[in-house]
Amino acid sequence: MSKKKKYYKQAFSEVKEFEHTAPVPKRKPFIKAVFENSKWQYIILTIFVFILYGNTLTLDYALDDRLMITENTFTKSGFGGIKDILINDSFVGFFGEKKNLLTGGRYRPLSHIMFAVEYGLFGPNPFIGHLLNILFYALSCVVLLKVLKLLFLNYKGLLAYMPYLVVLFFTAHPLHTEIVANIKGRDDILTFLLSLLTLQAIIQYLDSKKFYYLAIAAVFYFLALMSKENSITFLGVIPVIMFFFFKLRFRDYILPMLLIGLTAFLFILLRFAVLGFELNIGVEKELLNNPFVNATTNEKYATIFYTMGIYLKLLLLPHPLTHDYYPFHIELVTWTSLKALLPLVIYLILGFYAVWGMIKKQLPALGVAIYLITFSIASNLVFNIGTFMNERFMFVPLLGFCIVMAYFIIFFVRKLKNLQNKHNSYLFTVALIILVLYSFKTISRNPAWKNDFTLFTTDVKVSVNSAKCNVSAGGVLIEESQKTEDKALKESYLQQAREYLKKGTEIHPMYVAGWVLYGNVFLYLELYEEALVCYENALKIAPQNKDALNNMAHLAQVTQTKNLFDFSIKAYNVLNQYEPLSFDYQFQKARAYEGKNSIDTAMQMLLSIIKNNPEHQSSHSKLGEMYGKYYNNIDKSLEHLLRAYELDTTDASNIENLGIAYGLKQNFEQSLNFFEKAMELNPEKAELYMNVSQTYKMMGNESKAQEFLLKAQQVQSGSY
After folding, report:
1. How far is residue 597's CA from residue 9's CA, in Å, rounded to a whole number?
2. Which of 8, 81, 86, 326 lies at a CB distance of 3.0 to 4.6 Å from 468, suitable for a disulfide?
């Protein structure tokens, strides 16, 4: 056999059968004792987690936190929302109804209940949410170390360091930032933690044959499933680990797997009772919820493998990172592209090796198997996950990658023949370099999750071709522009938003929310024609979209206040094409006609309103004003003004007009009566006092006329 063949044969045959033996305690140097003592290992690991993620404690809510926390009515109901959380899809509390946005729906009540309890106890407090994420993540890493130490208990030499290397690489890997830094990521953390506890209980059962460990495993596994459905993949992970680390007969698998299988079945029944069976039913044909909606079968599966290749790249080199892999940050490719073919070949090799290597009990094969099993559910191969990919989907599969990486570092360090007595030092040096690089990237990435503004404006520089990220960045820039009084900064924000929204709607021309926000930018920039075009584009795509309808109406009202009456009428007419104008909008349109001096048209519109809605107070009031002002028909004026007063006795403007109308009728007593009512409602209007003064003057009461003239002057000067 050649040296090369011998080398590779040894590389893939390191795993030996082992027995659990109790170590004999020996007196050791203090520092060594500290680092080899389990308690101190767990304390140091927890401190390491806080070093990595301590800077998230100052962060606010971001991204999906609004779906599950800040804008979720069930969460904001605190303890009172728990029942609704248990009997509804996870998104119902945000949308107010079942939307069927994602295949199969989402049922993750455990983390959601935790958010509701936190909200009930502390209110909207992101510090508590981030602190708990760090603590649960630290606990997950501690439990992972404990489980790996049980599995690798009798490995010798450098392989004895496997648990520590795997856990440290796993803990520090930058792909975990999305899970830990985003409070909503609690569901993934809990799923992993509870799945590990399930595995630990089964290991303890295998060692002791005590049934209560299986009962504990079943409870933990049910809670894991209630955290997130992804834990279903541990139905594959657990038997793989049992096969690899334990010499078992077939019957030894039956009881543990039967029990957790039944647990999974009970969860599925519960999920079915809550959500119904909707594996591929009712999913919206919207690009942002189904990135393959316009793709051919060729493009779909080629692109899936292309993204699977990107995952491998991010595992090895986690840079650059982004929260957004929506269309088209990742482009659609076909099988003619190496971007698809190369990952396909790699995954076929990995799949073959995972099976063959597990049979041979080769340690890298275990890592590959764990990676493939846990990744399967998020790969888009099983079902459509609603996006091309996300970094958070690597949270559990990373464990398999870290096993492979730790093994090969040990393997190659051990092959350095000239350093026979320095293997430990070189292993620690290599591991330390990787940990420092990972830690630097993790700590520097965390601040991007400060809030939506920081996240979207940071990641849009990476996800340059994502429609969603461009639109999201534009949206938060608009929000910031409305918070500042600095005109130059406001203009800068709006111009940046304009560019991002332009690109977002170019990438995805059917993006309704993008067109609405694009229209908002033009509205704030006072480019009204452009705003009208954007809102109408949104309505052409979704004629019943409430945001587009409301913003079109707002555009009409804003331009009316700026005396752009023709444009305002045009906007109302466009709005009317998609939704019949309400009586209030018809009233505003009539006022626009009055503003452009089309009095007869305005009058006809107002008369039409009260014909269809006799109790429309504003129309009666305006008709009363216009009959007196334009037609000098005081009787008609009083008829409508009095009807308006019957409908609303607190309308100061209408009451003032009644005072004027009665004055013109020479009914000074009623005139003064209504002026006094108007002054009670609006005591700071100088014109009212002037009208009273004029009324007293017409009555021949000069002293009263002078008294109210003086009051009018005092009100006007602010000294009254």
Report:
1. 94
2. 326
